[in-house]
Amino acid sequence: MPIIPNSTYQPPFAIFKNGHLNTIYPSQFRKVKNIAYERERITTPDDDFIDLDWIYKNKNQVVIICHGLEGKAESAYVKGMAKTFAQGEWSVCAYNYRGCSGEPNRQIRAYHSGATDDLELVIQAVLAKGFVEIVLIGFSLGGNLVLKYTGENGSNIHAEIKKTVALSTPVHLESSSDVLQQPHNWLYMKRFSSKLREKVKAKKELLKAAGFDVETLSSAKSFYVFDELFTAKAHGFSSRIDYYTKCSSLQFLENIAIPTLLINAKDDPFLSPECFPESIAKKHQYFHLEMPKYGGHVGFTTFGNDNVLWSEQRAFEFISQVK
User: Fold this and answer.
1) Quick one: 182 and 280 in the same domain?
2) What CATH number has the domain bearing residue 85?
3) Contacts of 186 (CB under 8 A, 6+ apart)
4) Do residues 151 and 249 lie in contact, with contact meaning Cβ atoms separated by under 8 Å?
């Protein structure tokens, strides 16, 4: 039932019908002003830390925002969503994954697309503040994370968690990884791999002592290498394929038991055909799928309207209106 027809997103100019431009423009040129976070650090059971950046508004309602690969609470797309919800009188918790808050984390473990145990720690910290209505919003890797969490927990999800929104989400990790390796995505791969190599270098001695192939990781230029030699090994998977298989949220969507919206643009250069689960949405009571013709990856460029993107308006609308 909940495939949303006739998505309202329209590119502001014809040039933004190009998915690559719609991806790159807001990432590189958008500025979101007047966001003042308050930082909270929580300690993990393995003696590591996670940094949460807060905007305190409503004492009852809070949105937890999960960023994408190599993002952070300061990323423009996170700040834009945070600003939209704060203006709507919601409190905001922007979740920085391990090693993403501007300081290397203590352990070899980092973050990955399926790390719902860390997300649960964040949710527990939020629940401890007395919020009675929590919504989860995730971008890209963070979208996979919140969808996996929502589906894993099914009808046993915390009663306070009411809704979930995922944007530009690779719900099938293996095929999306293949898409990212294609020549037309070389610029994104170059940027991501450069950032990941920097993190390897920051933990070089720790990784060496644990038996990781630091030399190969330090020159890795693809997710295939990084996920095989680091992500899988550091997080208990037998291989990158094992990691992709176990952490893809696609297999958990049918178990979702709260209103959930997935927005994936048809021209998203990161997504494979498997990332548009129409057959699941058609028969699902709670899982809503919206597939704008345009939008790129975490793009949805919009001008005017106080610099609010269509995706931010749409997420707020869904959270506010859907029962």
Assistant:
1) no
2) 3.40.50.1820
3) none
4) yes
Sheet holding 161-167, edge to edge: 3-4, 287-290, 260-263, 161-167, 133-139, 61-66, 91-96, 49-55, 38-43
| Rg for the chain, CA atoms, rounded | 19
**180 and 243 part of one domain:** yes
Pairing of strands 161-167, 133-139: parallel
Dihedral angle at the C-alpha atoms of 200, 205, 207, 211, nearest 10 degrees?
140
Which of 247, 277, 301 lies at the terminal end of a domain, its last residue?
247
Decide if 296 contacts 200 (C-beta within 8 A). Answer: no
Which pair of tokens denotes residue 303? 């001008």
Q: Looking at the whole model, is its pTM more than 0.85?
A: yes
Spatial distance between the Cα atoms of 118 and 144, rounded to a whole number of angstroms? 14
Distance CA 45, CA 141 (A): 23
**CA dist 83 to 4, 24, 293, Å?**
26, 21, 26
Note whether 212 and 183 are within 8 A (CB): no
pLDDT by residue for the chain (323 residues), tens digit each? 589 988 999 999 999 999 999 999 999 999 999 999 999 999 999 999 999 999 999 999 999 999 999 999 999 999 999 999 999 999 999 999 999 999 999 999 999 999 999 999 999 999 999 999 999 999 999 999 999 999 999 999 999 999 999 999 999 999 999 999 999 999 999 999 899 889 988 899 999 999 999 999 998 888 899 999 999 999 999 999 999 999 999 999 999 999 999 999 999 999 999 999 999 999 999 999 999 999 999 999 999 888 899 999 999 999 999 87
